[in-house]
């Protein structure tokens, strides 16, 4: 009874720990999907800025500024392509994590929910870093494009606004990270519940079957022992009968030998008597003569 209660308690704890870990998995999954969606939007914006944007030809610039215009064009196209590639990396990364992570958590072996959740948590840093690079490159392309499209007065104002936006994004990021930062060693961990060893519990039916099998084995061994004992007794009785026959034959032979010895001894005595009588007869004859 206690073993069954312990098994039920372990199963309940493990089930509740898995449910809590599933909540954490859904949290990381939704966060990654949100970042992936935003990266897809930025990738569409980047490719539009790459295709639709047509800066003024270099020949329209003053001769002393043509080299500067070429440098700005190179910087702009390089940054916008880098932004598009970074956002596409985020989209592909989050898609792979969503599909493979959910498949492992639901269809994997025992403990897969823990592995999938920890995997998503570890991969999120790479996703966030790449997304930050894509966002920075997108805003940076705006800083360059204003000088290629607008007169210097308008370009200067737009450049200052874009620069202020970049600074504000960075300060907001630092403030939010500082506000919600925590020590990773103090996080709630369910590994001790999810990795507890399973208790081997034998049901009453299994116990009854084992008892029946044990009784069958005992009866079989008893039958074998009794059969062996009977066989040994029969062998011993047959051996004793053979020994009795041998003793009887030996006794008969011994009595025959004794009889022959008695007969031989009796004949010897007669011979001696006869031999003893002859001298007496001879003496008698000699006396008569």
Compile the SSE list and pairings.
Elements: H1 2-52, H2 66-107, H3 112-149, H4 152-179, H5 191-194, H6 204-288
Q: Can you walk me through this structure?
A:
The protein is mostly helical. It folds into two domains: 2-201, no CATH class; 204-289. It contains six helices and no strands. The longest helix is centred in the last third of the chain and has 85 residues, at 204-288.
Please give a handful of descriptors for the protein shown:
6 helices; 0% strand; mainly alpha; 289 residues; EF_Hand_1_Ca_BS; disordered C terminus; transmembrane; membrane; 86% helix; single chain; elongated; 2 domains
Class derived from helix and strand content: mainly alpha
Strand proportion, as a percent range, falls in: under 5%
Overall number of strands: 0
Instruction: Summarize the main sheet.
Output: none
Shape assignment? elongated
List unreliable stretches of 5+ residues.
Answer: 198-203, 216-220, 222-227, 246-262, 268-289
Average pLDDT for all residues: 74
How many helical stretches? 6
Q: State the end-to-end distance.
A: 130 Å
The ordered string of helix (H) and strand (E) elements is HHHHHH
What is the count of structural domains?
2
Level of helix content? over 70%
What value does the Rg take, in angstroms?
57 Å
């Amino acid at each position: 009874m206690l073993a069954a209660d312990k098994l039920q308690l372990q199963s309940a704890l493990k089930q509740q720990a898995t449910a809590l870990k599933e909540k954490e998995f859904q949290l990381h999954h939704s966060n990654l999907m949100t970042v992936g969606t935003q990266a897809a939007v930025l990738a569409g914006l980047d490719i539009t800025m790459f295709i639709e944007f047509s800066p003024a030809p270099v020949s329209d610039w003053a001769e002393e500024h043509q080299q500067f215009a070429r440098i700005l064009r190179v910087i702009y196209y390089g940054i916008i392509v880098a932004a598009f590639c970074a956002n596409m990396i985020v989209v592909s990364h989050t898609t792979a994590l969503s599909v493979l992570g959910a498949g492992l958590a639901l269809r994997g072996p025992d403990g897969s929910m823990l592995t999938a959740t920890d995997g998503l948590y570890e991969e999120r840093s790479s996703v966030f870093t790449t997304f930050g690079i894509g966002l920075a490159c997108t805003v940076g392309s705006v800083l360059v494009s204003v000088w290629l499209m607008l007169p210097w007065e308008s370009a200067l104002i737009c450049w200052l606004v874009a620069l202020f936006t970049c600074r504000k994004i960075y300060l907001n990021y630092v403030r939010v990270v500082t506000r919600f930062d925590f020590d990773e060693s103090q996080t709630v961990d369910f590994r001790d519940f999810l990795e507890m060893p399973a208790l081997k519990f034998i049901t009453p039916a299994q116990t009854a079957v084992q008892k029946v099998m044990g009784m069958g084995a005992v009866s079989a061994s008893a039958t074998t022992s009794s059969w062996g004992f009977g066989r040994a007794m029969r062998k011993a009785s047959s051996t004793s009968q053979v020994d009795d026959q041998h003793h009887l034959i030996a006794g008969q032979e011994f009595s025959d030998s004794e009889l022959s010895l008695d007969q031989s001894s009796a004949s010897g005595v007669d011979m001696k008597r006869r031999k003893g009588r002859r001298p007496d007869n001879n003496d008698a004859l000699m006396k008569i003569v």
